[in-house]
Design goal:
Elements (H helix, E strand, L loop, with lengths): L4 E5 L5 H11 L4 E5 L3 H7 L14 H8 L4 E4 L2 H7 L2 E4 L19 H13 L4 E5 L7 H12 L5 E5 L9 H6 L4 E5 L3 H14 L8 E5 H32 L3 H9 L20 H14 L3 H28 L8 E5 L14 H11 L3 E5 L5 H10 L5 H7 E3 L3 H5 L4 E4 L11 H6 L6 E4 L6 H7 L2 E4 L5
Parallel strand pairs: 1-2, 1-4, 2-3, 4-5, 5-6, 7-8, 9-10, 9-12, 10-11, 12-13, 13-14
The protein binds uridine-5'-diphosphate-xylopyranose (UDX) (2 copies).
Length: 465
């Protein structure tokens, strides 16, 4: 089966970049990305490529190459479904905030809505590809809805989890470690798998395209994210031991990372992991384990999140205790708000919890982030429901210049590892601050020796004094 027409429902951080790369690499396939959010679609269609709704290095170039040629962004979901041979579902699957599984299970209402819409509109056979991260056996639910409410066409469901990391999405899509495709073992299932393999084979070496059964594919995504998050929590747990004993977490990470069984990646101690996936996927895994009565397994993975919460709170407590046990009325400046560098995404960013803790201690926050908008920061804080929207706005001032942000601050806290922070004129910043001038490096990126030479008092995650 040769695919000529692809539709992707969900123009978010995953759907947008993934489809842009497929369109770039497969100019013979028409790719239409649709979304219920009209302003998001408008932004994808913006003539000014700096206005794309997702910031990713080089994404503007990839979009520029294909948009209007074979890549389209639209709100006409029915039309795109009708035309497509293959439909990717890439809508968000947030953690449930109500009812059974509240705070843990994935909320599948958007997935179900998509499945029902496809069933209503489709007149010909289609391949449905799950891109969103989903609990194991969701494909079964999608198939049941399609088969029971459809108008006769046959549907094949594939699981094709996305492993791209934000900030490196384009590189990850162009040169993936592997592409994973799960499908049924029936003849039709095998044909559907091959149709998707053929798309990726335009640019991914065949030996990197892995095919499995649907459940293995769905579970592999949750497992990969749980393992990655666990590495961060493990190194963060060690970071506190380093601070107490005088060891240096970067030296420890280097020493263990040279063991080829451990490997060097994902060993950077930090103020905590964020992002839309790690916490959500682990909670999901915990929920699945509990559903099957596997309480020890559930507790094991839950601990990864507990350490992460602990690390964020530990960081804000270190700031308060160092500033003579009070930050009331003191200006504290955050460099960075995004959950990692090179993205404008702030979902689950550790900056949010750290800020909330410090505002509760009556600090006045200044924030500078090169890519995150002030509205986004305020909305992030509002979602915690700790205080009123007015109080959040009164407590946080957002700056467009790092020097203005740091001016008059008692302390500077690095929350995101943006490259530009390293090359600031730190002497100038020092002169604009009351003394002692404190720096709390939650990402371990600054040259502490140089800062100390200027006069700063520095604290870095995982470094003993
Ligand atoms: C994706 C996956 O969906 C998620 O499961 C995975 O874990 C991470 O990647 P992401 O692309 O980051 O999520 O989400 P988001 O940026 O929120 O994009 C989802 C888009 O789907 C939004 O633009 C939303 O408007 C759209 N949407 C949602 C629809 O078009 N229809 C719906 O019914 C629901
Ligand atoms: C992750 C997975 O890496 C990706 O494969 C999956 O598709 C989606 O979830 P993402 O959340 O975009 O990607 O970014 P990632 O690079 O994994 O970072 C997640 C968080 O962990 C960030 O807050 C990052 O700062 C933190 N982190 C990462 C550390 O604190 N230390 C590290 O060594 C690595």
């Amino acid at each position: 089966m040769i695919i000529k027409n692809i539709c992707c429902i969900g123009a978010g951080y995953v759907g947008g970049p993934t489809m842009a790369v497929i369109a770039q690499k497969c100019p013979q396939i028409k790719v239409t990305v649709v979304d219920v959010n009209a302003s998001r679609i408008d932004a994808w269609n913006a003539a000014d490529l700096s206005k794309l709704p997702v910031f990713e290095p080089d994404l503007d170039k990839v979009v520029a190459e294909s948009r209007g040629r074979n890549l389209y962004f639209s709100t006409d979901i029915d039309e795109a479904i009708h035309e497509a041979d293959m439909i990717f579902i890439s809508v968000n699957t947030p953690t449930k905030t109500y009812g059974k599984g509240k705070g843990m299970a994935a909320d599948l209402k958007y997935i179900e809505r998509c499945a029902r819409q496809i069933a209503r509109v489709a007149k010909q056979d289609k391949i449905i590809v799950e891109k969103s991260t989903l609990p194991v056996r969701t494909a079964e639910a999608i198939k049941s809805i399609l088969d029971n409410t459809g108008n006769g066409p046959q549907f094949q469901i594939l699981s094709n989890p996305e492993f791209l990391a934000e900030g490196t999405a384009v590189q990850d899509l162009l040169f993936p470690d592997r592409v994973l495709i799960g499908g049924e073992s029936s003849e039709e299932g095998k044909q559907a798998i091959q149709a998707l393999v053929a798309i990726y084979a335009h640019w991914v070496p065949r030996e990197r395209i892995l095919t499995t059964n649907v459940w293995s594919s769905e579970l592999s995504k949750l497992t990969a994210n749980a393992f990655l998050a666990q590495r961060v929590s493990s190194i963060n747990a060690m970071s506190e031991i380093c601070e107490k004993t005088g060891a240096d977490i970067d030296e420890v990470a280097q020493a263990i990372g040279m063991d080829s069984r451990i490997g060097p990646k994902f060993l950077k101690a930090s103020v905590g992991f964020g992002g839309s996936c790690f916490q959500k996927d682990i909670l999901n895994l915990v929920y699945i384990a509990k559903t099957y009565g596997l309480h020890e397994v559930a507790q094991y993975w839950e601990q990864v999140i507990k350490i992460n919460d602990y690390q964020k709170n530990r960081f804000s407590e270190m700031i308060v205790s160092t500033l003579y046990n009070t930050v009331s009325g003191k200006k504290i400046t955050f460099l960075g708000w995004a959950f990692k560098r090179d993205t404008n995404d702030t979902r689950e960013s550790p900056a949010i919890q750290v800020a909330d803790n410090l505002i509760s201690e009556q600090a006045q926050l200044g924030v500078y982030d090169p890519k995150v908008s002030p509205e986004r920061m305020y909305t992030d804080l509002d979602h915690l429901n700790t205080r009123s929207e007015q109080e959040n706005r009164a407590a946080v001032q957002v700056y467009t210049s790092p020097y203005d942000a740091c001016h008059g601050a008692h302390a500077i806290a690095v929350l995101t590892e943006w490259e530009e922070f390293k090359s600031y004129d730190w002497q100038r910043i020092y002169e604009s601050m009351p003394k002692p001038a404190f720096v709390f490096d939650g990402r371990g990126i600054l040259d502490t020796m140089a800062l100390r030479a200027i006069g700063f008092v520095c604290y870095t995650i995982g470094k003993g004094s």
